[in-house]
Write a structure and sequence with these properties.
By secondary structure, the protein is an all-beta fold. Helices cover about 0% and strands about 65% of the residues. The strands form 16 sheets. The chain has a two-stranded antiparallel ribbon with strand order 1-2. It has a two-stranded antiparallel sheet with strand order 3-4.
C-alpha cells in the first residue's frame, strides 16, 4: 500500500499510477498523464498535443494545428490545416486544393484538376487534354483527339487522318487516303491510281496515260505516244512521227 496526498492506493496485480491526488489503475494498460488529464492506453498508443487527447490503436495520429488526424489504413496528408485522407489513393496538394488519385495520376496545371487513370493527360494553356488510347496534340488552346487517327495541326485548324495522309498547304486541307495529293500554287491535285503532272498552273491527269507537257498544252497519250515538234502535236499509235 502506498499513500499520496492522503489517498490510499491498493496494488495487487495492478500497477497504480498517481498524479495530482487522482487514482490511476493500469493492469495491462499503459497510462499516460498530461496536464492533469487521465490518458488510458491498453493496446493503443497515445499522442498528446496541446492539451488534446489523441488515441491511436491501429491508427497513426498526425497532429497539425490542434486538429485530430486519424489514419488507420489511410495515409493522412496535412496541408494548411486541412485533412487529406488517402487509403489507397495518393493525395496531391496544389495551392490549397485537394487532388485525389487512387488508380489515377493527377497532373496539376494552373489550379485545374487533371485526372488520368489509364489515360495520359496533356496540358496546354490550362485546358484538359485526355488521351486513353488517343494521342492528343495541342495547338493554340484547341483540343485535338487522335485515337487511330493522326492529327496534323496547321494554323489552328484540325486535320484528321485515319488511313489518310494529310498534307497541308497554305491553310488548306488535303486528304489523301489511297490518293496522293500534289500541291501546286494553292491548287488541290488528287491522284488515286493516276499520276498528276503539274505544268504552269494546269492540271494534267494520267491514269493509264502518260502526259507530256509542251508550252502550256495538254498532251494525253493512253495507248499512244505523243511526240512534240515545233508546237505541233504528233500522235502515233501504229505509226512513227519523224
Amino acid at each position: 500500500m502506498s499513500s499520496y496526498l492522503c489517498t490510499i492506493f491498493h496494488v495487487q496485480s495492478v500497477i497504480v499510477h498517481s498524479c495530482q491526488g487522482t487514482i490511476f489503475i493500469a493492469p495491462s494498460v499503459i497510462l499516460h498523464s498530461y496536464q492533469g488529464t487521465i490518458f488510458l492506453a491498453p493496446s493503443v498508443i497515445l499522442h498528446s498535443f496541446q492539451g488534446t487527447i489523441f488515441l491511436a490503436s491501429s491508427v497513426i495520429v498526425h497532429l497539425y494545428q490542434c486538429t485530430n488526424f486519424l489514419a488507420q489504413s489511410v495515409i493522412v496528408h496535412l496541408f494548411q490545416g486541412t485533412i487529406f485522407l488517402s487509403p489507397t489513393v495518393v493525395v496531391h496538394l496544389y495551392q490549397g486544393t485537394i487532388f485525389l488519385a487512387p488508380s489515377v495520376i493527377v497532373h496539376l496545371y494552373h489550379c485545374t484538376i487533371f485526372l488520368a487513370s489509364s489515360v495520359t493527360v496533356h496540358t496546354y494553356q490550362a485546358i484538359h487534354f485526355l488521351s486513353p488510347s488517343v494521342i492528343v496534340h495541342s495547338c493554340q488552346g484547341t483540343i485535338f483527339l487522335a485515337p487511330p487517327v493522326i492529327v496534323h495541326l496547321f494554323q489552328g485548324t484540325i486535320f484528321w487522318a485515319p488511313s489518310v495522309i494529310v498534307r497541308l498547304y497554305q491553310g488548306t486541307i488535303f486528304l489523301a487516303p489511297s490518293v496522293i495529293v500534289r500541291l501546286y500554287q494553292g491548287t488541290i491535285f488528287l491522284a488515286p491510281p493516276v499520276i498528276v503532272h503539274l505544268f504552269q498552273g494546269t492540271i494534267f491527269l494520267a491514269p493509264s496515260v502518260i502526259v507530256h507537257l509542251f508550252q502550256g498544252t495538254n498532251f494525253l497519250a493512253s495507248s499512244v505516244i505523243v511526240r512534240l515538234y515545233q508546237d505541233t502535236i504528233f500522235l502515233y499509235p501504229s505509226f512513227i512521227v519523224q
